[in-house]
Specification:
two-stranded parallel sheet, alpha/beta, Rossmann fold
């Protein structure tokens, strides 16, 4: 059984590498995407209606959370490749690339027609079992966001926190979740945690950050009822930026093996959350 598991893991790693290379090849034939270096004032871009949305059909759809930050909720077009507010970093490229990989290597059958952005205080978030949060270190939650997220997590929702670093940002995130889930505390996650074996067999948690290499990356989690043996409700890629690997996997900026590892973490997160 162990030999079969390792063999399957090797096949999946190969499939992931091939899928990543396919994305890179496809990128060579895509029209150039315009880059934007500055976002308009937040007040001019408060609506989500101008961004592509896919209708809810019951299948897994990648959802990114838009939250109230110290800089507001502004959103300019073309925020990937380094622009826009923190909650939108790497959008839409990371989201699109990840869903292609998920569809390629699993039988989950995710929605490949597009991805969605949902406000942290929007009840529609409860339709989606998994949500991705970029740069929570600059989150300044409203009470409506706290209440909605508390209900979301309590009913089985799962949050992925990514792209944040430093003691200052960590203190902010910790304070936010003390408000959302009083009595719960983040715990350092070890390799034996079920989420790291949910689909791929993760061999090491030492995934170097694509940027800000002066910080030591770790994975932390919040468990239901503050029980380390309970369901993981929140995972934090602290001092790391897995979304950056996803975004740039079609550009060759980072080694393919590191991009593949980043995808493996993301796939495991989804498969774990869909089966708990």
């Amino acid at each position: 059984m162990k030999r079969e598991t390792r063999a399957m893991g090797a096949i999946m790693v190969l499939a992931t590498a091939l899928a990543t290379l396919s994305l890179a090849a496809a990128a060579l034939h895509e029209p150039h995407r315009a880059e934007h270096t500055a976002a308009p004032e937040p007040a001019l871009l408060s609506s989500l209606q101008e961004f592509p949305r896919v209708s809810y059909d019951g299948s897994y759809t990648f959802v990114r959370v838009r939250f109230n930050s110290f800089r507001g909720r502004g959103f300019g077009r073309g925020f990937g490749r380094g622009g826009g507010p923190g909650w939108a970093h790497d959008y839409p490229y990371a989201d699109e690339n990840f869903i292609k990989i998920l569809d390629e290597v699993t039988l989950l059958g995710p929605n490949t027609e597009g991805t969605n952005i949902v406000d942290a205080d929007d009840p529609d978030l409860h339709r989606h079992p998994i949500a991705y949060v970029s740069e929570p270190g600059e989150w300044a939650p409203t009470q409506a966001e706290v209440d909605n997220l508390a209900g979301y997590l309590g009913k089985g929702g799962f949050l992925i926190l990514d792209d944040f670093r430093s003691d200052r940002e960590w203190r902010n995130v910790e304070a936010i979740f003390n408000a959302i889930l009083p009595g719960h505390r983040f715990r350092l996650l070890e390799l034996e945690e079920p989420i790291f074996n949910a689909f791929f067999q993760i061999e090491t948690l030492d995934l170097p950050p694509p940027t800000f290499g002066q910080y030591r990356p770790v994975f932390l989690g919040l468990h239901e009822n503050d029980d380390p043996d309970g369901r993981l409700m929140v995972i934090a890629n602290f001092n790391n930026d897995i979304g950056d690997y996803w975004e740039y996997s079609d550009r060759g900026y980072f080694p393919i093996d590191l991009s593949n590892e980043a995808y493996k973490f993301g796939v495991n997160y989804v498969i774990y959350a869909m089966n708990r």
